[in-house]
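#onboarding

Welcome to the new folks! Below is a worked example of what a typical request in this channel looks like: someone posts a single protein sequence, and someone else replies with the predicted structure as tokens. Don't worry about understanding the tokens yet, we'll cover that in week two.

Example request:
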Amino acid sequence: MNVTFLGTGTSTGVPVPTCACGVCLSTDPRDARLRPSLLLRWNDASVLVDTSTDLRQQALRQGLTKLDAVLYTHAHADHVFGLDDLRMFNWRRGGAIPAYGSPRTLAAIRRTFWYVFEDVEAGGGKPLIELHEVEAPFVVLGRTVVPIPLHHGTLPILGYRLGRFAYLTDVSAIPETSYALLHDLEVLVLSALRHRPHPTHLHLARAIEEAARIGARRTLFTHIAHDLSHGAVAPTLPPGVELAYDGLTLDTP
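Example response:
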């Protein structure tokens, strides 16, 4: 499976409007972070994890012309507000795109994008998606996807595991029962917001502790705020732990 990081930033993206900190003014392209999203490819399949606010820009930058499914982690703005941009992929596909998420997440998407699911005038068109509630492993285009229950502050959200790869973003805590779903990973993607503790996200030191406990061969941190400079932080990380960046690609079982 091929993995591409479409966006590795937090809800504001980096640089942050109105900010003149060193990271926001950085000329290192790894410090320029769009809102969080991931593209998974295997065989002829192309699957998004979340439709970030920056989906249009991400699709153009990656030359993405085909989309077969979406996996939603939760319904916060930075993870779903690109949903309307699925219209273009509907036209190319010639039909609806299946989207998977928890019942809570899909209910929130129905509220936020009410016009998609009600019989109203389409105007310039509206996205066509088929919502599928998931609470147990399911199959997408021939691959088994395992939902991983997580905590984002007090909000229950999902990560996803496919084969020996797992994507856990916006995490503040991992329930004890979820660790059993994370054994024997080749690649773990885990959020690491900033240096200081945060009520709804893992900060860098806690993310390093979680990475050590899970024990994947390779761990990449994402959902990174403008507190963390790639050039300054990357050399300080333990062996096997890295900062992801927009456009990074890798192959994993």
